[in-house]
Amino acid sequence: MRWTRTMIATLRDDPQDAEIVSHKLLVRAGLVKKLSGGLYTFLPLGLRSLKKVERIVREEMDRAGAQEILMPALQPAELWQKSGRFGQMGKSMFTLKDRAEHIMALGPTHEEVVTDVVTNFLTSYKQLPCTVYQVQTKFRDEIRPRFGLMRSKEFIMKDAYSFDTSMDAANASYQAMYDAYTRIFARCGLAAHPVEADTGTIGGNHSHEFMVLAPSGEDGILHCQKCGYSANQERAERQCPPVRNGEKSAEPREKRSTPGAHTIDEAAASLGLPSDQMVKSLVYVADGKPLMVLVRGNDELCECKLRRLLGATSLEMADDETSAKFAGPIGSIGPMGVQIPVYADIGLQGARDVATGANEDGFHMVHVDLTADPDIKIAGWMDLVNVVAGDRCPRCGAELSIERGIEVGHVFKLGTKYTEKFNSVFLDENGKSQVMVMGCYGIGVTRTMQAVIEQSHDDNGIIWPATVAPFEVTILLLDPKDAAVSGVVDRLEHELQELGVDVFVDDREERPGVKFKDADLIGCPVRVVVGAKGLAKGGVEVKLRTGKDSDLVPADSAAAAIAAKVAELKAALNQ
RNA sequence: CGGAGCGUAGCGCAGCCUGGUAGCGCGUUUGGUUCGGGACCAAAAGGUCGAGGGUUCGAAUCCCUCCGCUCCGACCA
Q1: What ipTM describes this predicted complex?
Q2: Cα separation values, A542 from A129, A173, A333, A512, Å
Q3: Fewest C-beta atoms under 10 Å: which of A7, A367, A408, A521?
Q4: Where does CATH 3.40.50.800 sit in chain A?
Q5: pTM of the full predicted structure?
Q6: Does nucleic acid strand B have an atom less than 7 angstroms from the CB of A311?
Q7: Which CATH code for domain A36-236+402-453?
C-alpha cells in the first residue's frame, strides 16, 4: 500500500480531547477518527491493526476447539426479560422499538441469545462439551465513555460461551479458554495478568480478568509478591488485623461531647482514640431502601462489594436529610437504636470497646460493644472494605501492593444461571434430563488494540509488536523523483509482497525529516529507508522501530533479509 | 445523573474581562528556493465564532435557555 493512496492524516499536535497517551497516539497516527463521544471510525491503518488482533483471537479460539458463529446484534427485549436482566442492564442497554412497537435491544452481550440458540441444538451429552464464539460489535450506553476506544458506546468484542455436562467438565472448558487468553495476549505483545475478579451483572461465582498494567487503567489490582495472589480491588480480600479494643473492655457505653468533630480523624482526636478504634457508620440507600453500614474508622467502604452482597441495582450514599431521618446527622451517625438494617464489616467482629457517632450533632459514644449492646442489631457481618496497599495478603499474610490495570479480557464460570432460566437441558447417558453448565468469556478487541499502544510506545510514537502492526514494514522513499531510487522501491515492495510481508511505502513528496517523524509515529516494526544517498553507499537501510542504528543491506538481497527479520519478530511473539 | 472545565478554519490556540473590520501557528492549494530527523519565501483557499433567544445603533465578546465535548465519581470488554 502507498501513503499517497491511503487515507491517513497524521497530526503534529495532541488532540485536545485526549487524555491518555494511547488515545493521543491513536488519533495522531491517523488510526481512528472520532465521530462523537464514544463512537469512532477506524481509518485504514487502524482497521488493519484491529483485523490483526481479531485474527489472532480467531486462531486461538479455533485452536481451543471453539466454533465461530455470528449472532444478531439486534435482539428482542423478551429474551432479556426471560433472564431477568432487562431491569438490571436496562440503563446501559440501548433499546428501541420496531414498527410493530416491539421493544428491541442492541446487544451489550449475548448470554441470552446464545443460550436460546444452543437450547435448540444441544440436546444430548454426546454433543457436549461445546464452545461457540463470535467477534461482533457490542453496544453499551456507557454512563461516561472515556479514553478513546477504552470505554466506548460501540466496540468490538469477542465473546465465547461454553456448555458442559457437569461442573468438572465446565472447569476444563474454562481452563481451555483461560489458556487461550494467555496465548492471545502474549501474541499481541501484551503482558496481561490474570486476576480474581468480581462477576458483576454477568453473574456466576468465579471469574478472572486479564489485566494490562498501566497507570491509566481504570481498575485497582492488589498483588502479593510472595505468593502471587492477584485480585481486582472490587473483590480483593485481606487478613484482617485484630480489632483494637480499649484497655478496659465492656464498660457501659458513654456519650461524650465532641464539638465540631464530623470526620473520623476529628472525632478520634477529640476522644483521644486511635482511628482504628473508631467505627465509621454510613447510611446508604439501596434500591430505595435505607440501610446502615459499619466499617473500621481507618477503612474505606467498597461500594461494589456492598452492592454485590445486597444484590442491589442502585446504591448511593444517603443525603443529609435521609441520614438524619433514620439515624443521625452525617458526621455523627451511630448504630444504636436505628430502625434500619445494619451491616458490619467482618473486621469489626469482636469489637467490644469502640467509638461511634451518637446520632446527635457534636456527640460521640465510647465503650460501644457491637455484639452485646442491646440497642445494636447487626443484620449481617460481611466483607465490605476496600483493600488497599499495605493490607495483608489473604493467603500468606505478606504485604499487598496495588497497581492500576486495563481489563482486556474476562472469563466467567456461570454455572446454571442462564441455562436454568432458559431450560437448557440435555439427556445424559442414562436418558436423564440435566441442565447444562455454562461459562462465558469476553475480550475487548478494540480495547486490546489500544492497550497495546498504551503499553508499547515512546516519545516519538507507537511501537507496534510485529503481530499486530498495521504493516510489518514501512519503506521510506526518500527521493521519489529519482528514477533509480523509485525503481528500487517498486521492486522491493513487490518482492516483499511476494514473500507475504505487509509492506507500506511512504511515497509522498515530503522532506526526509517529515517521513522519519511519521514513520516513528505510526510505529511499524521494520523501517526501510531507500534514498539516493543510501544507494550510493551500497544499499538500503534497515532499522527496527525498537533499535537505534540501521543496517545497510544490498538492494538485491534486501527483500529476503527483511522478510527473515519480520518472521523472526513475529515468531518471538507467537511461540 | 452529581461536581469541574471547554466549545472561534481540517488540527492546536489567541481574541471575550473593558461590545465596534475574524486573528495566529500547523495543515491544505499554487509558484519558487531547498532536501537524511517535523525547511524557507511569496501568493491563495478555507469561518452560520456550538444552537436559539434577549440586551444594544452594533454581540465571538454581556444576559438567559438548550446542545455537544472533556475531566473526577457510580457502570464495564
Answers
A1: 0.94
A2: 49, 45, 70, 15
A3: A7
A4: 464-574
A5: 0.94
A6: no
A7: 3.30.930.10
